């Protein structure tokens, strides 16, 4: 569900919207989408992150209609650049409500990976999810326009 004023954020989104999050980790999944699937994946990632006892890596997540760009907050080093067309699902987890996660296909080996991030608030996890949804919508409009043009 997109809010009515979302067209105002459209311009900002074209540039790319930034979120400061903590990267929790990644796990492989069997299917490209699904709430139960992603919930199970997030549960695994959270458990692994807790068990490792390591501090989570602070990252900057940039969302645009081109996809998701992930940088290390400290070094500004590029971690990953995920094309919007490789992302099959994103969600704010219901149980771990400060967790934003997305499922994407790995460019090198075609594996389906679920990546999870810890947000400062539940609202932020929802905001990131909505922003990715909006980016999808714009990317799809561009794709349609290109196809027709």
Automatic annotation (TrEMBL):
The keyword Protein biosynthesis does not apply. PROSITE patterns: PID (PS01179). SUPFAM superfamilies: PH domain-like (SSF50729). Its main location: cytoplasm. Pfam families: PID. Keywords: Cholesterol metabolism, Cytoplasm, Endocytosis, Lipid metabolism, Steroid metabolism, Sterol metabolism. It is found in: Cytoplasm. PANTHER family: LOW DENSITY LIPOPROTEIN RECEPTOR ADAPTER PROTEIN 1, PHOSPHOTYROSINE INTERACTION DOMAIN-CONTAINING FAMILY MEMBER. This is ARH protein.
